[in-house]
Fold diguanylate cyclase.
Amino acid sequence: MVTRGLIISIPWLALVNITFALLVLLRNWLFSDIDRLYEVGTARAATIDLLMLTVIVLFSLSLLLVWRKKRGLSLLLLLAGLIWSFCSVWFIAHLQLPFAWPLCTTLLMTSLAALYFYPVGLVCYALPLWIAMPVASVMLNQGVSLRFLVVWLIFTGILVYGRFILLRWFDEAWLRHQQNQALIARLDALAHQDPLTGTANRRAMEAVLENAVEQDKGFALIMLDVDQFKRYNDFYGHQAGDECLAAVALALKKVVRSPDDVVSRYGGEEFLLILFDATEKVAERVAARIQESLRAAAIPHAASTVSDSVTVSMGIASMTVGQTASEVIAQADAALYRAKNAGRNRWSC
Ligand SMILES: Nc1nc2c(ncn2[C@@H]2O[C@H](COP(=O)(O)OP(=O)(O)OP(=O)(O)O)[C@@H](O)[C@H]2O)c(=O)[nH]1
């Protein structure tokens, strides 16, 4: 989150700092020979120019660091903060430039807005500048000015309170973001999951299959139908029928390789299993495991003529090159039909 925040706000902080550094660099052109007016010597002017060029380089580097997600940003911010504080003291105490105070306060406010969520960086950049203001005042007034002290304390209060407000907005935005993520996850589950069994619904299953065909990913299918489920419903009631389907789904989920393979509810009391990178032989082994899993679940089915507990019939098909998803499904469906006709509680390929 902090990294994302820095990617957004560092370009703005860099823009402000580079612009201010350029203003100082171009001072003689912008403010008609200001160096001569304030009697800035050649050596001092060269020092200022060099420091401003350093600020430009530091903020250009900070952009690179943030975009490439590298460490060391706080060190660059500290160096920039120290340069600005040195220049501010010199502008205020020695040159008595009127625009030095607004320069300081603007830089401080800008750093607050850009770095309020990154305390280390904020302290590195803002602390030297914040200290430079009273130092410059003491040097300028040759002593402590009570009026300046009051203004400085008020300004400090504004900065601290401002950070507190910004952090509260940040928390609010983060909370909304988390709520939205939870909502998206819920909507996604509603759109792709069968609410009764918690398996993938038909739409999700079809999307997975089409994707697999597009990417030439091999798979085998097991189309599965609960035996004599109408009798189950008639005997135990519809509510118990629903619970039975959920229990069958649980038994199916236990036998597949999660999360690669997909268990989906094809409709009514029919399920479709997608087994990736599986041959018909592998699918037959899974079918045997399904029978075992259901035997272990032992869901009573007193009305069945096949067994005392719930059983399933299964049709197996595997994808061959050039086949569409619906062709493989039709093949598995035909195999299921054969398993039903052969007496149920079995599989057919
Ligand atoms: N409780 C419940 N029953 C369902 C649901 N979906 C479908 N059914 C019932 O499943 C039964 C399926 O019946 P049939 O298609 O005749 O199949 P069957 O009784 O299983 O017979 P065979 O498949 O030939 O063994 C119907 O009675 C449907 O009402 C469901 O979500 N809940």
Notes: The mean pLDDT is 93.
